[in-house]
Give the backbone structure.
Amino acid sequence: MNQKPSNTGFVIRLTVILCFFALLIFPVALMALDGPDSNAMESEATVELKEFSFGNYLDGSFQSNFEGWFSGHYPLRSQIVKTYRQTRYEVENAAPVVAVMDLLNGNFGKNPGGPSTDPNGDTPTWPGLPNVPSTPTTPTTPTTPTTPTTPTEPDAPVDPDVPVDPDAPTEPDQPTEPEVPVDPYAIYLDPSNIYAEINRRQLAEIPVEPKGYRGSDRVYIGKSGYLYESAYIMEYMGYGEPYTSVTREGVKTTVEKLEYIQQELKKRGIEMLFVLTSSKAAAYSAYIPEYFKNMYTTKEGYIRPVDMLREELADSSVNYLDSAVYWQQIGLLNTFPKTGIHWNAIASFESTAELIRMYQRLSGEMTVTLSSKGVIYHDDAPSSFNNEKDVFKILYGAFIPSNAIVDEDYYSPDIQISSAGSKKLNVLLQGGSFAGSINHYLVNYGVADVSYIYYNGLNSHGTIAASSPWEKGPEAWGDWLKGRDLVIFEATEQQVRGAHYDGSKSWAKVAGDGNYGHNAVYDSMYEYLKAHEGEY
Amino acid sequence: MIFSSTLFLFIFLPLVLVIYYLIPKRYIMAKNVELLIASLIFYAWGEPKNVLLMIISIGVNYVFGLLLDKYDGRVKLRRLVLVLSVVFNLGMLFFFKYFNFFTDVLGVGDRFATIILPIGISFFTFQIMSYTIDVYLRNCAPQKNVFKLALYISLFPQLIAGPIVRYIDVEKELADRSYDVDLVFKGVTRFSVGLAKKVVISNTVAMLADQIFALDATAMSASTAWLGAIAYTLQIYFDFSGYSDMAIGLGHMMGFHFLENFNYPYISGSVQEFWRRWHMSLSTWFKDYLYIPLGGNRKGKGRTYLNLFIVFACTGFWHGASWNFLVWGLYHGVFQIFERLGLKKVFEKVPKPLKFLTHIYTMLVVIIGWVLFRADNLGMAIDYIAAMFRFGNWGWTRAMAQLEGYTLIIMLIGIIFSAPIIPKLGEKIRKLDGGETAISIISGASMLVLMLVSIFCLTGSDYNPFIYFRF
């Protein structure tokens, strides 16, 4: 380069140029010396570098793979991400910024607590009490395991030809006692309920609208620090096309297929159970933040796909467990932590224990039985299989601000195992991440040997079937079903609408009309059983 | 490959520049070859198949240039060659960009496959056309060296997002150019400013704009609609001008002097002034190669207005094959005409203390125009604009629900820096003793800060956690 006679300005400009180049060259130089950044950010899908081929290059997959790999692996990246997120957090939580946002939101000086209201409706929800999907029935407290009952005689049919005299005098109505109002929370706080204390803590958690940092990357901070993944709220509230396009026909078809599958499996000596797992948005709707609800509008006439599914399942012969209803029946209110989008260990345990009891009732067989005799309290999330701080870690990007809201305590069941003379089951479990908990309790407490297909078996995370029936074709079900006692299908409420909200690759191959989740799974097994009908 | 990517910043750019600077200055041809190879790699990275299209286009137009030279003195043949070159270039643009649009309009769209639009085709086609037209008009000599012509067309700083560089503006620099510490420093600081505009400001407000434009416009509150429109107004300016700054900065680093593309358009006091400040390379291109050949303003008022209408229709359509782009262009054309019909004279009579009213008028026209530009389709644009004026449903709370503290800060920074505060401050500092040194220090420090902040924002936004237990 031309050099001017030495002067301060020249030196400064040259220094700036060199600094510029240093900034650009430093990461690659460091990579050449030290290798790529191996500290992949927690909960990030790591991109494996693919080999170059002309075909890869022409279709652009090599380029996007390389860019994805490089942007995730250049040196100091993880530190830069943490610093960036920390800065965002501090900026958004800075007092002047919070004050200005309060002013703009008209919240200045207002008490942010109190009952929440749904801006799309008029019904206030009681602070601290999550929505329940149906009227509470007679409460039962989980106790020692019961022996399975022997099948009973069917009821004697009523003679349709016996006439009823329409003019026969009827007894005059007896005066009725005035109705005593039923305390809807009594079941949860009953002293005999082993979960009364954690329920009480839940009821005491008054929803408070969050200020400052709201979250990002699809994880939002709700009231009182409850974290949500936006897709769950979108489904619950009926925001967005994927959730409003599910049809009754699609759901009906899927339930019919499940009925057929159950019937055919039964003929092969295999029981089938379907378990519906609740979403946090549904179970904890009181904590959905107002700012999120204000951003969207519920489509008129929206019916939650899961409610359609519930209605179809109720009219079908499918053996199913609706977790949300079951928790209500047993008086369990505290089912999700603040920091995770999955059910907590208590909720997952109780659902699994009930699945085992359902199998026992259906099959008449005695298996290892699980029950809880109380709650164990933990300072931190107790279980890796449940990952009760999954979205907490996502949200804060592996740096934890000192004032991040966490659960005061985490809970796990004090498990009792009853296994005298019991059979160990052979189970095929198919489902999403909630099924991971079911898998854990079945396997680690000696209930069953489990083959766990995570979604459609194509995703590389978790306990994945090495080669799913989708790769080998429906005939592969022959091997997968051999020797099974029980097939469990697990689906969350949010999965009812089909392919994942952002079209992630784990759902990229889900076939069908997209109106119901797990189309590929049920369709494939249905296809196999249909082709082999009668081969029992 | 885009400028605001880690691959470009940390691998491509330093590699290209280091090799460029290592080649001795006297070997301009070697430098040109290096830049040409780098530019073709740059384009081929994102368009592995369509790079051949660009090479073919370069080759064909090179031949056109030679033919125009060969038929010098033969008017009809030269005109024929020009017509052929315009037909070829516009034909290529039409096929890739507008074919599917017109087949859909004619109702036969389902009979044809979707044609993928090559990146940057609108820019390099107009560049190529400026070459052949200027050779025809004898504004420049035809380029006999195909590599130099190829370099002019494919030069990576301005290939995919402009500015549209006219051949006559870089003809001499293709053959001989120099750079020194001052010019490279200028380029480095300009590039850093552009990167920060794109990554820090534009990308941040883009998230808000995308969020609001995804809402149901028929149910949107007026304040939400305005918030989204203002966010998009900032997004498009900082995105586009940021890219132009990066392109100009890169050009400086290599000894090229590209013309300015933006001159603080949001301080304009009229729509005419806006178009003298916004995407100047495009408006100049249309003025020189369409408006003036149509007669400009030399054939009476009626013809002038018609010419303006045609030019702005083409301007809108150039941006995209969609009715809303066409309407956007015509919308600006209509205001151009209104101002010529007398509105401009009214503005000139506005007393100085009230001049801000002309600015408000201009910004209202521009912001509403951006809604037409941004909307997915014309129907959505109409619904959105209707929402903006549904003052009975002001819905302030709903608007504020969309806004985060960080985004608000960035929007305020964007609004402030839409005005020429920095250049004016720079002028004042330069007049002081030691002003130049102070400028160097301030520019240099700002460059470092902007680069660091940009790298942080780029990296942070690249962080895309896969929510493992999504269900």
